[in-house]
User: What shape does this take?
Amino acid sequence: MIESNPSSDSNSMDAIIGILDTGIWPESESFNDETMGPIPLRWNGTCANGHDSSTFNCNKKIIGARSYGAGEIKSRTPRDMMGHGTHVAYTAAGVEVKDVSYYGLAAVTAKGGSPGSRLAIYQVFSSQNGSHGSTVLAAFDDAIADGVDVLSLSFGSSSFLEQEFINDPIALGAFPSVQNGITVVCSAGNDGPNPGSVVNSAPWILTVAASTIDRVFESDVVLGNNKVIKGTGINFANIQNSPVYPIIYAKSAKKSGVDENATRNCEPNSMDQEIIKGKIVVCDNEDSLYPQINKQDEVKKLGGIGVILIDDELRGVAFNFGTFPMTLISSKDGAKVLSYINSTKNPVATILPTTAPANYKPAPTIAYFSSGGPSTIPKNILKPDIAAPGVNILAAWIGNDTVQTLKGKDPPLYNVFSGTSMACPHVSGIAAAVKSRNPTWSPSAIRSAIMTTAVQTNNMKAPITTEKGTAATPYDFGAGEVITTGPLQPGLVYETTAIDYLNFLCYHGYNIATIKIMANTIPDGFTCPEESSIDYIQHQLSINSNFQFR
Assistant: This one.
């Protein structure tokens, strides 16, 4: 336990955040280096721009870039062709940009978590090659040699495929990184709300869950009786705001011989086109294997003019439906819509284009998709560690996008995405800010500062809940919701040493030979405690099992 230093501003430094992801779009205004000073002399990295050398340029903001995968270095490029890495990099360290929006929605002046930090890009994913454990490990090795201070990884294995530390490239690469003073921040996974679905749960990793923010993307339904039903989603619908369009429950358009469950869920080839044509269709999203995009496509193909999807979980995330009128509503509001449909001979409605009101309450809540604890590997570590904004996050985007581009428009400069992938870089940016303020602090001290200053209440001064309204627990948000300024002045921080982690691996069941594979260095003379051996533990269990109730 060490005291934080209130006067450490005088010793501040430029922190360097390494982003392991899909690359970066360097031309984005979010990575402008006009306000940046000289590149730190301690930086040892390179700008390996490969075949893109004529257009991909590093600067005083993006001070390094590497690409991994098949082929020679000159045949590769760290340019982001998927968008994910650019979005993540901006969230962590983008500079301040005014009038940021997604086609006019959610217009704000925005910046990343640590706008004064430098970025080092390690492209370990590509649309052609995906990602492999060997490329992830190579990126870790390069990042250590390059001299980064924080590593941000917005990916991980599926909770169904989580591996032992010795077989997990992220856990393997993170251990020597932490030994070299690098704070490693990872996303907790998107397999929630199932208990025990959290990944990246090694104790030397700072694991981040996702929470909502106080801005929503609202697309309301107006019924013929003038009742307004609140919905969520992003659509730029060009239909009338007055409720003049016929509305129907999908179940009423069932094809002969088709299962009713398939029809009410708007599944492909389940609805009668003559009944659907020209109508707004209300679809369930219960016990269905088809995602919402398939339901949208099916109704659109049949000539429907809009979709109202009933789903209590998904409605917390603003899915992008482009120019098609579609919105998500709760089951409670769904019952009101169906009641209206059944109450009149000619029910009508409309779906309003999206607005983005702020100051939404309650916020934060824990996102339905955010993977929860307890950890399964290992079972005795509480994960996730912290929660951060990960729902409907607006951040920089790639300049050659086609998927998220509205018809007849230029590609968006900024885009809205959700996931623990978006939560992770918020914490990475804060970790970099803490490192800048306290250059001598270890990764565990930085993690301590972030966790011990977290909050457990929302903007209504009530306990944070899940999106379903139930009380959130440490299995949902770890220590709580991260705050931006508290970690800079935590008062006290708690230290975990390399010996603590080595002893943990011993008690996890690893022998010295296995630990040497994982660790960068092991102190001379280090041995596992006798009581950590499997034989000793089994012996103690056999002794302690001979008890009786009295």
User: Anything to note?
Assistant: The mean pLDDT is 91. Residues 221-351 form a domain with the Glucose Oxidase; domain 1 fold (CATH 3.50.30.30). The first helix runs from residue 84 to 93. The radius of gyration is 26 Å.
